[in-house]
Protein backbone atom coordinates (compact mmCIF):
# COMPACT_ATOMS: atom_id res chain seq x y z
CA UNK A 1 0.00 0.00 0.00
CA UNK A 2 1.71 3.16 -1.24
CA UNK A 3 -0.31 6.27 -0.37
CA UNK A 4 1.06 9.30 -2.16
CA UNK A 5 1.52 12.65 -0.47
CA UNK A 6 1.04 15.64 -0.15
CA UNK A 7 -2.32 15.09 1.53
CA UNK A 8 -5.56 17.06 1.61
CA UNK A 9 -7.21 16.17 4.93
CA UNK A 10 -11.01 15.87 4.79
CA UNK A 11 -12.74 16.62 8.10
CA UNK A 12 -16.32 16.57 6.86
CA UNK A 13 -18.70 18.16 9.36
CA UNK A 14 -17.59 16.32 12.50
CA UNK A 15 -18.97 17.66 15.80
CA UNK A 16 -15.76 17.99 17.84
CA UNK A 17 -11.96 18.00 17.69
CA UNK A 18 -11.64 14.44 18.94
CA UNK A 19 -13.62 13.17 15.94
CA UNK A 20 -10.82 14.47 13.70
CA UNK A 21 -8.06 12.69 15.64
CA UNK A 22 -6.87 10.83 12.53
CA UNK A 23 -6.24 14.09 10.67
CA UNK A 24 -4.75 15.73 13.76
CA UNK A 25 -2.38 12.83 14.30
CA UNK A 26 -1.12 13.07 10.73
CA UNK A 27 -0.56 16.83 11.16
CA UNK A 28 1.24 16.37 14.49
CA UNK A 29 3.66 13.72 13.21
CA UNK A 30 3.80 14.27 9.42
CA UNK A 31 3.13 18.00 8.97
CA UNK A 32 5.39 18.14 5.93
CA UNK A 33 3.12 15.68 4.12
CA UNK A 34 0.02 17.91 4.49
CA UNK A 35 -1.13 20.75 2.21
CA UNK A 36 -4.47 21.71 3.72
CA UNK A 37 -7.79 20.69 5.18
CA UNK A 38 -11.28 20.51 3.69
CA UNK A 39 -14.19 21.23 6.06
CA UNK A 40 -17.90 21.22 5.39
CA UNK A 41 -20.32 23.75 6.97
CA UNK A 42 -20.87 22.94 10.63
CA UNK A 43 -17.49 21.29 11.15
CA UNK A 44 -16.28 21.85 14.73
CA UNK A 45 -12.75 20.50 14.21
CA UNK A 46 -9.69 22.38 13.01
CA UNK A 47 -6.17 20.99 12.50
CA UNK A 48 -4.71 24.45 11.89
CA UNK A 49 -3.97 23.72 8.23
CA UNK A 50 -5.13 26.15 5.51
CA UNK A 51 -8.72 25.56 4.40
CA UNK A 52 -8.83 24.49 0.76
CA UNK A 53 -11.31 23.33 -1.83
CA UNK A 54 -10.64 20.15 -3.76
CA UNK A 55 -9.58 22.14 -6.82
CA UNK A 56 -7.30 24.47 -4.85
CA UNK A 57 -5.57 21.44 -3.32
CA UNK A 58 -5.24 19.72 -6.69
CA UNK A 59 -3.74 22.88 -8.22
CA UNK A 60 -1.28 23.05 -5.30
CA UNK A 61 -0.10 19.50 -5.96
CA UNK A 62 -2.13 17.35 -3.55
CA UNK A 63 -1.98 13.65 -4.43
CA UNK A 64 -4.38 12.04 -1.94
CA UNK A 65 -7.54 13.04 -0.08
CA UNK A 66 -7.38 11.50 3.40
CA UNK A 67 -10.70 10.94 5.17
CA UNK A 68 -9.23 12.04 8.47
CA UNK A 69 -12.09 11.35 10.89
CA UNK A 70 -13.42 8.68 13.21
CA UNK A 71 -17.01 7.99 14.21
CA UNK A 72 -19.08 5.35 15.93
CA UNK A 73 -19.40 2.39 13.59
CA UNK A 74 -16.90 3.76 11.08
CA UNK A 75 -19.58 4.78 8.58
CA UNK A 76 -19.29 7.22 5.68
CA UNK A 77 -22.15 9.77 5.71
CA UNK A 78 -24.01 9.90 2.42
CA UNK A 79 -23.47 13.65 2.00
CA UNK A 80 -19.69 13.13 1.97
CA UNK A 81 -19.79 10.95 -1.13
CA UNK A 82 -19.99 13.91 -3.52
CA UNK A 83 -16.83 15.47 -2.07
CA UNK A 84 -14.93 12.21 -2.55
CA UNK A 85 -16.15 12.01 -6.13
CA UNK A 86 -14.93 15.58 -6.70
CA UNK A 87 -11.49 14.65 -5.40
CA UNK A 88 -11.28 11.63 -7.70
CA UNK A 89 -12.39 13.73 -10.67
CA UNK A 90 -9.70 16.30 -9.83
CA UNK A 91 -7.00 13.64 -10.04
CA UNK A 92 -6.57 12.74 -6.36
CA UNK A 93 -6.50 9.26 -4.89
CA UNK A 94 -8.64 8.77 -1.77
CA UNK A 95 -7.63 6.96 1.43
CA UNK A 96 -9.86 6.21 4.41
CA UNK A 97 -9.47 4.63 7.81
CA UNK A 98 -13.20 4.09 8.34
CA UNK A 99 -14.65 0.60 8.71
CA UNK A 100 -16.75 0.94 5.56
CA UNK A 101 -14.77 0.23 2.40
CA UNK A 102 -14.69 3.06 -0.11
CA UNK A 103 -14.85 0.46 -2.85
CA UNK A 104 -18.13 -0.89 -1.43
CA UNK A 105 -19.93 2.38 -2.24
CA UNK A 106 -21.00 2.09 -5.89
CA UNK A 107 -20.83 5.81 -6.73
CA UNK A 108 -17.28 6.12 -5.36
CA UNK A 109 -16.06 2.88 -6.94
CA UNK A 110 -17.47 3.87 -10.34
CA UNK A 111 -15.94 7.36 -10.22
CA UNK A 112 -12.55 5.95 -9.23
CA UNK A 113 -12.69 3.51 -12.11
CA UNK A 114 -13.72 6.18 -14.61
CA UNK A 115 -10.99 8.58 -13.44
CA UNK A 116 -8.27 5.98 -13.10
CA UNK A 117 -7.70 6.81 -9.44
CA UNK A 118 -6.92 4.54 -6.49
CA UNK A 119 -8.94 3.91 -3.34
CA UNK A 120 -7.13 2.91 -0.15
CA UNK A 121 -9.03 1.32 2.73
CA UNK A 122 -6.34 1.47 5.38
CA UNK A 123 -8.45 -0.27 7.99
CA UNK A 124 -8.65 -3.40 5.88
CA UNK A 125 -5.76 -5.73 5.20
CA UNK A 126 -5.39 -8.50 2.65
CA UNK A 127 -2.84 -10.17 4.93
CA UNK A 128 -3.94 -13.54 6.31
CA UNK A 129 -3.18 -13.95 10.02
CA UNK A 130 -2.68 -17.10 12.06
CA UNK A 131 -4.36 -17.69 15.39
CA UNK A 132 -2.19 -16.37 18.22
CA UNK A 133 -0.04 -18.95 19.99
CA UNK A 134 1.31 -17.00 22.97
CA UNK A 135 4.71 -18.67 22.49
CA UNK A 136 7.60 -16.69 23.91
CA UNK A 137 9.51 -14.80 21.20
CA UNK A 138 12.74 -12.84 21.42
CA UNK A 139 12.94 -9.07 21.63
CA UNK A 140 11.43 -6.52 24.00
CA UNK A 141 7.92 -5.08 23.76
CA UNK A 142 6.14 -2.14 25.32
CA UNK A 143 2.38 -1.68 24.97
CA UNK A 144 0.42 1.50 25.66
CA UNK A 145 -2.87 0.81 27.44
CA UNK A 146 -5.64 3.19 28.47
CA UNK A 147 -8.26 4.09 31.01
CA UNK A 148 -10.42 4.86 27.95
CA UNK A 149 -10.24 5.08 24.17
CA UNK A 150 -8.83 8.28 22.63
CA UNK A 151 -6.54 9.15 25.56
CA UNK A 152 -3.19 9.33 23.76
CA UNK A 153 -1.92 5.75 23.38
CA UNK A 154 -0.62 6.40 19.87
CA UNK A 155 1.02 9.70 20.84
CA UNK A 156 2.69 8.07 23.83
CA UNK A 157 4.13 5.26 21.71
CA UNK A 158 5.38 7.65 19.03
CA UNK A 159 6.92 9.97 21.61
CA UNK A 160 8.64 7.02 23.26
CA UNK A 161 10.04 5.87 19.92
CA UNK A 162 11.50 9.33 19.26
CA UNK A 163 12.99 9.72 22.73
CA UNK A 164 14.31 6.17 22.98
CA UNK A 165 16.07 6.44 19.62
CA UNK A 166 17.60 9.74 20.71
CA UNK A 167 18.99 8.00 23.80
CA UNK A 168 20.54 5.07 21.97
CA UNK A 169 17.81 2.45 22.01
CA UNK A 170 16.89 0.29 19.02
CA UNK A 171 13.14 1.01 19.02
CA UNK A 172 10.31 0.93 16.48
CA UNK A 173 6.73 2.17 16.64
CA UNK A 174 4.22 -0.53 15.66
CA UNK A 175 0.90 0.81 14.38
CA UNK A 176 -2.34 -0.97 15.25
CA UNK A 177 -4.79 1.72 14.11
CA UNK A 178 -5.56 3.58 10.92
CA UNK A 179 -3.89 6.86 11.95
CA UNK A 180 -0.74 5.05 12.99
CA UNK A 181 -0.64 3.34 9.61
CA UNK A 182 -0.94 6.73 7.85
CA UNK A 183 1.92 8.05 10.00
CA UNK A 184 4.29 5.09 9.87
CA UNK A 185 3.43 3.64 6.47
CA UNK A 186 2.97 0.15 7.92
CA UNK A 187 0.94 -1.80 10.45
CA UNK A 188 -2.52 -3.31 10.80
CA UNK A 189 -5.79 -1.79 12.00
CA UNK A 190 -6.44 -4.36 14.72
CA UNK A 191 -10.09 -3.46 15.29
CA UNK A 192 -10.88 -4.63 11.74
CA UNK A 193 -9.33 -8.08 12.26
CA UNK A 194 -11.67 -11.02 12.90
CA UNK A 195 -11.69 -11.65 16.65
CA UNK A 196 -10.06 -15.09 16.55
CA UNK A 197 -7.01 -13.64 14.81
CA UNK A 198 -6.40 -10.42 16.79
CA UNK A 199 -3.62 -11.80 18.98
CA UNK A 200 -2.09 -13.55 15.96
CA UNK A 201 -2.11 -10.28 14.00
CA UNK A 202 -0.19 -8.58 16.82
CA UNK A 203 2.31 -11.43 16.84
CA UNK A 204 2.73 -10.80 13.09
CA UNK A 205 3.17 -7.03 13.64
CA UNK A 206 5.81 -7.64 16.30
CA UNK A 207 7.72 -10.81 15.37
CA UNK A 208 10.83 -12.24 17.03
CA UNK A 209 13.65 -9.71 17.09
CA UNK A 210 17.09 -9.09 18.55
CA UNK A 211 17.03 -9.49 22.31
CA UNK A 212 17.75 -5.76 22.85
CA UNK A 213 15.23 -4.44 20.30
CA UNK A 214 12.09 -2.66 21.52
CA UNK A 215 8.77 -2.74 19.67
CA UNK A 216 6.55 0.09 20.92
CA UNK A 217 3.08 -1.22 20.24
CA UNK A 218 0.19 1.22 19.89
CA UNK A 219 -2.69 0.24 22.17
CA UNK A 220 -6.39 0.38 21.29
CA UNK A 221 -9.50 0.95 23.39
CA UNK A 222 -9.49 -0.06 27.03
CA UNK A 223 -9.90 -3.30 28.94
CA UNK A 224 -12.70 -1.51 30.81
CA UNK A 225 -14.60 -0.13 27.81
CA UNK A 226 -17.78 -2.14 27.14
CA UNK A 227 -17.49 -1.53 23.39
CA UNK A 228 -13.80 -2.23 22.79
CA UNK A 229 -12.46 -4.43 25.59
CA UNK A 230 -12.32 -7.48 23.31
CA UNK A 231 -9.90 -5.74 20.95
CA UNK A 232 -7.81 -4.47 23.88
CA UNK A 233 -7.51 -7.96 25.38
CA UNK A 234 -6.49 -9.61 22.12
CA UNK A 235 -3.90 -6.90 21.60
CA UNK A 236 -2.53 -7.38 25.12
CA UNK A 237 -2.14 -11.13 24.66
CA UNK A 238 -0.56 -10.81 21.21
CA UNK A 239 1.82 -8.07 22.31
CA UNK A 240 3.30 -10.30 25.01
CA UNK A 241 4.41 -7.04 26.59
CA UNK A 242 7.43 -6.83 28.88
CA UNK A 243 6.34 -3.35 29.95
CA UNK A 244 3.30 -1.13 29.58
CA UNK A 245 2.47 2.55 29.93
CA UNK A 246 -0.98 3.57 31.18
CA UNK A 247 -2.53 6.47 29.24
CA UNK A 248 -5.13 8.73 30.85
CA UNK A 249 -7.17 11.91 30.40
CA UNK A 250 -7.87 13.39 33.87
CA UNK A 251 -11.03 15.42 33.23
CA UNK A 252 -13.28 12.64 31.94
CA UNK A 253 -15.97 11.23 34.18
CA UNK A 254 -17.41 8.58 31.85
CA UNK A 255 -15.88 6.56 29.05
CA UNK A 256 -16.25 7.92 25.55
CA UNK A 257 -19.69 7.33 23.98
CA UNK A 258 -20.97 5.23 26.91
CA UNK A 259 -22.28 5.91 30.43
CA UNK A 260 -19.75 3.71 32.25
CA UNK A 261 -17.45 5.55 34.69
CA UNK A 262 -13.72 5.71 34.01
CA UNK A 263 -11.65 3.10 35.87
CA UNK A 264 -8.85 4.31 38.09
CA UNK A 265 -5.24 4.07 36.96
CA UNK A 266 -4.66 1.51 39.70
CA UNK A 267 -7.48 -0.65 38.37
CA UNK A 268 -5.98 -0.52 34.88
CA UNK A 269 -2.51 -1.44 36.17
CA UNK A 270 -3.82 -4.38 38.18
CA UNK A 271 -6.05 -5.71 35.39
CA UNK A 272 -3.31 -5.34 32.76
CA UNK A 273 -0.82 -7.28 34.90
CA UNK A 274 -3.38 -9.96 35.72
CA UNK A 275 -4.51 -10.54 32.13
CA UNK A 276 -1.15 -9.85 30.45
CA UNK A 277 0.57 -12.49 32.57
CA UNK A 278 -1.09 -15.16 30.40
CA UNK A 279 1.49 -14.58 27.65
CA UNK A 280 4.22 -12.82 29.65
CA UNK A 281 4.35 -13.53 33.40
CA UNK A 282 7.00 -10.80 33.76
CA UNK A 283 4.80 -7.95 32.46
CA UNK A 284 5.13 -4.75 34.50
CA UNK A 285 4.01 -1.09 34.45
CA UNK A 286 6.78 1.31 33.44
CA UNK A 287 5.07 4.72 33.42
CA UNK A 288 1.93 6.82 33.14
CA UNK A 289 1.18 9.07 30.16
CA UNK A 290 -1.36 11.84 30.75
CA UNK A 291 -3.07 14.17 28.31
CA UNK A 292 -3.05 17.39 30.39
CA UNK A 293 -4.35 19.65 27.63
CA UNK A 294 -7.40 20.65 29.72
CA UNK A 295 -5.23 21.71 32.70
CA UNK A 296 -3.11 24.83 33.13
CA UNK A 297 0.61 24.27 33.56
CA UNK A 298 0.67 24.35 37.38
CA UNK A 299 -2.34 22.05 37.66
CA UNK A 300 -0.75 19.70 35.14
CA UNK A 301 2.58 19.64 36.99
CA UNK A 302 0.88 19.06 40.34
CA UNK A 303 -1.29 16.30 38.91
CA UNK A 304 1.67 14.44 37.40
CA UNK A 305 3.58 14.74 40.68
CA UNK A 306 0.60 13.32 42.56
CA UNK A 307 0.35 10.34 40.22
CA UNK A 308 4.06 9.72 40.49
CA UNK A 309 3.93 9.69 44.27
CA UNK A 310 0.80 7.52 44.35
CA UNK A 311 1.94 4.83 41.90
CA UNK A 312 5.76 5.01 42.23
CA UNK A 313 5.97 5.39 38.46
CA UNK A 314 7.15 8.28 36.27
CA UNK A 315 4.20 10.31 35.00
CA UNK A 316 4.50 12.55 31.96
CA UNK A 317 2.58 14.39 29.26
CA UNK A 318 4.29 13.34 25.97
CA UNK A 319 3.35 16.53 24.13
CA UNK A 320 3.67 19.12 26.89
CA UNK A 321 6.65 17.87 28.89
CA UNK A 322 8.07 14.92 26.97
CA UNK A 323 8.61 11.30 28.02
CA UNK A 324 12.21 11.53 29.23
CA UNK A 325 11.33 10.33 32.73
CA UNK A 326 9.63 7.20 31.37
CA UNK A 327 12.59 6.39 29.12
CA UNK A 328 14.92 6.82 32.10
CA UNK A 329 12.82 4.23 33.95
CA UNK A 330 13.06 1.85 30.98
CA UNK A 331 16.85 2.30 30.97
CA UNK A 332 16.99 1.58 34.69
CA UNK A 333 14.71 -1.48 34.60
CA UNK A 334 16.09 -2.94 31.34
CA UNK A 335 19.74 -1.73 31.23
CA UNK A 336 20.94 -4.34 28.74
CA UNK A 337 18.68 -2.95 26.00
CA UNK A 338 20.22 0.50 25.95
CA UNK A 339 22.84 1.48 23.39
CA UNK A 340 21.91 -1.25 20.91
CA UNK A 341 21.15 0.94 17.92
CA UNK A 342 21.04 -0.79 14.55
CA UNK A 343 24.12 -0.29 12.39
CA UNK A 344 23.49 2.51 9.88
TrEMBL record:
Ranges of residues in domain D-glutamate N-acetyltransferase-like N-terminal: 41-124
Top-level lineage group: Bacteria
InterPro entries per UniProt: DgcN-like, DgcN-like_C, DgcN-like_N, P-loop_NTPase
Transmembrane segments: none
Domain spans labelled D-glutamate N-acetyltransferase-like C-terminal: 131-327
Pfam families to which the protein is assigned, alphabetical: DUF1611 (PF07755), DUF1611_N (PF17396)
Annotated protein name in UniProt: EBNA-1 nuclear protein
Species per Swiss-Prot/TrEMBL record: Rhodomicrobium vannielii (strain ATCC 17100 / DSM 162 / LMG 4299 / NCIMB 10020 / ATH 3.1.1)
Amino acid sequence: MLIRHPYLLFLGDVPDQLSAKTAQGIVDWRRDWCLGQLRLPGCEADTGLPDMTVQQAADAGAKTLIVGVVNAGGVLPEHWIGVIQQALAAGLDVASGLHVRLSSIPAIAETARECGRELFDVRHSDQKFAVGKGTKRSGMRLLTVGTDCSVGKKYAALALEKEMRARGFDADFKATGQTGVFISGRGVAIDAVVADFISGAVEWISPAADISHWDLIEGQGSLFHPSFAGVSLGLLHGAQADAFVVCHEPTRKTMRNVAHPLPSIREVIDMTVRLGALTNPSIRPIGISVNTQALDEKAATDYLKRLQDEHFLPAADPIRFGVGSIVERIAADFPLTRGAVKAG
